[in-house]
Amino acid sequence: MYELSVTRLIEADLAKVWDVFANRTNEWWCPMPWRAEVNWGTRQPGGLTHTTMFGPDGEKNEHPGFILAWEEGRRVAVTDAIVGDLEPAGPFMIGVWELIPEGSATRYIGRARHWTAETMAHHKDMGFDEGWGTMADQFKALCEA
Q1: Of the residues 26, 30, 75, 129, which has the maximum number of CB atoms within 10 A of its CB?
Q2: Could you list the residue range(s) of the whole structural domain that residue 101 is in?
């Protein structure tokens, strides 16, 4: 499997962490000074999601996606390989975000799974570690506030 991942132990209970994940996504989804508008859509497998990321210099990146899994309070998986009315696209990756209780804390794991070693290497070269790491730090800070 061609996977990149980031993990954080968040000192907050699962209910709070899930609430920040699902309902306050726009506050942590992009490394600042970028910002995101995340629309999770119907929040169920087969639903469409759409994220728009805005850069500090007027950049705008659109990211349509397809929800593969929506397990309330536990896990979300989306892909850019399917968009619209089951139209093939990309593919670049499958994003999987998991929340796992660990005592009174919660383990956050963000995974980017790729079809090929080349696309994984490209994602790493794009700044995966810094970008997703910063997002995870922002997410952790919101959950622990």
Answers
A1: 30
A2: 2-28+70-144
